[in-house]
Amino acid sequence: MNLKNIKYLSIFMLSIFLASCSDNENEVMVNTVIESEFAGTYRVKDQMGRPAVNTVFVSSSSKDRFNTTIPSKQGAAFQSMFEANLTSLSPAYANSGDKNALGLDAATFTGLLATDVLNVSLDGTTTFYDGTNVLTGRALADDVITVELLLIFGGEDFTENPNLSNDNVDANDKEFLTSFPYLASPW
Asked: Which PROSITE patterns match (predicted)?
């Protein structure tokens, strides 16, 4: 974090502290408005449309290049790397013509993965996978890592490599809320 950002964060935190301190419960609290200047040049440091995809399939020496490539160009630039990493990693793609449960061979599947965006269905079910819909978005309760493991290691019917196809984390540690912000409160 650079010095300018630390300064803004410090001012913000101090204003919250001062605005919430009062000896008189009837005193009207005054909120301080801090105007921040966000001019400057910004750079993408990391892309992760689909959790773990970038982490697993992008070689260490290519991380910076992948993270600064716009998604529409990622497929052409990185699909072959993704495919090489997939076929060396997963026994489910050991033979030519092997497919996953979506019916995608290694080249087609890695072409999909190399464009690291989270697809969203605007007129259908939003889910990472619900047995029918696949990669149409992501609900909070979706078991994203297990779905990715199944698609990578599970073969054509999710039965290949069962020890590699599940992260064995089947639920959140706390129930999600039924209203915004939906995330469970921290411990």
From this structure: PROKAR_LIPOPROTEIN
